[in-house]
Amino acid sequence: MEGVKTISSQGLAHLSGVTSAQVRKDLSYFGNFGKRGLGYLVARLKKEIRLILGLNRRWKVALVGAGNIGSALFSYKEFRRQGFYFAAVFDVSAERVGQRLRDLHILNVDSLKTETERLGIEIGVIAVPARAAQSVADRMVQAGMRGILNLAVELESLSFSIKALNGRPARRARR
Amino acid sequence: MEGVKTISSQGLAHLSGVTSAQVRKDLSYFGNFGKRGLGYLVARLKKEIRLILGLNRRWKVALVGAGNIGSALFSYKEFRRQGFYFAAVFDVSAERVGQRLRDLHILNVDSLKTETERLGIEIGVIAVPARAAQSVADRMVQAGMRGILNLAVELESLSFSIKALNGRPARRARR
DNA sequence: TCGTGTGAACGAATTCACAGCG
DNA sequence: CGCTGTGAATTCGTTCACACGA
User: Fold this and answer.
1) In this predicted structure, what is the pLDDT of residue B173?
2) B54 reaches A (C-beta below 8 A)
3) DSSP H/E element including A125
4) Domain ranges in chain A with CATH number 3.40.50.720
5) Lateral strand order in the sheet of A6-7
6) CA-wise closest residue to A115 among A59, A75, A60, A66
7) What pTM does this model have?
8) How much of chain A, in percent, has pLDDT values that exceed 90?
């Protein structure tokens, strides 16, 4: 794929496993950057997609939950490479508050709103046990965050998609 | 919500943010466990859902990638609580192979197939950099795993869903 | 000529709305 | 009478197929 200057909707379809018509419809939704009789310029396409996904800018992120999953994401280079960087870390646990995660002090989650406003944080990442996730999400909305990413929910939907591959066939509904 | 014995499709709709008709259709797909004029018995519903999601059994899981994300998931109690337990851990890195992750030796990923068969592993978890994920997935299929969970892909789709909440409005396609 | 962009046809999923059971 | 379960109506998304520009 290296050195290819241009790619057709069919080529993209082949790579991604969807139909070429789908590729064209989806891309045309964001603008007309294909060239008729030619296809899409790979370099242009790459740039447009980064723009569409918001990967052309850096997002200030707050992490709530400095346990295993939270700490791991904090150290996960890919995540930073995508343009998300951690401006603050919060936790509820008295023993964790005051500790550090790399260069950041772990703050009490009660200061979420003030810190969010002070630092201009836009996105919250929830890495707490599933049962606590909802109340954290509520606080984040309160604090004015524009995006929330809930790792607990993600993990639950994962177990579901695994089941979908495996399950005893579901009893068919009457029709 | 504690102590509630029964819940209507409307109640569930309100909690989950979908329509009540949707709730009823979805549940009826798996069987008829609602009571007319009453709603769904919470205890019954809980049991049925665990069954549907496959949370009533334990799944043997192999982890590939013993880096930050992999180690974190390995230590993440919720994941075990959902019935997934790690029977083996693999990595490519010569320095990691032979080390231990808690009670498990980190094995070379080349032994994936033999170990999968020997231990009866059913699900693979991929926790490697995104660029390496596809080849690991291929090996897992080769090894006969029935479900694959790719954390790299998950993290990518997360960044997308964040954007959906925030993005500058996309240019509308002509109609 | 090749391959996009897009109406039109089609199919799937959601919502409506109500018969019927508890 | 309240609320499920489910056909029918409707909406939404995908695929088809082709006019048109490069």
Assistant:
1) 30
2) yes
3) strand A123-126
4) 59-157
5) A6-7, A39-41, A34-35
6) A60
7) 0.79
8) 58
Give the model confidence (pLDDT) of B18-69 as tens digits.
999 999 999 999 999 999 999 999 999 999 998 988 888 899 999 999 998 8
Nearest CA to the C1' of C16 belongs to which residue? B21
Q: Which residue in chain A is spatially nearest to B26 when comparing CA positions?
A: A173
CA distances from A114 to A101, A149, B119, B171 (A): 20, 20, 51, 35
Residue nearest D1, CA–C1′ metric = B37
Q: Which of A49-58, A162-171, B70-79 has the lowest mean pLDDT?
A: A162-171
Cα angle: A77, vertex A162, B137; to 5 degrees: 55
Residues B59-157: name the CATH superfamily.
NAD(P)-binding Rossmann-like Domain (3.40.50.720)
CB contact set of B78 (below 8 Å; sequence gap of 6+): A129, A130, A152, A155
Q: Which residue has the tokens 């999601």?
A: B53
Residue B168 is classified by DSSP as: P
CA distance B122 to A83: 35
CB of A134 less than 8 A from some CB of B: no
Residues B131, B133, B136, B141: is their CA dihedral positive or negative?
Answer: negative
Taking the CA of residue A46 and the C1' sugar atom of nucleotide D18, their distance in angstroms comes to 29
Q: Is A10 helix (H, G, I), strand (E, B) or coil?
A: helix
Q: Are B86 and B65 in contact (CB under 8 A)?
A: no
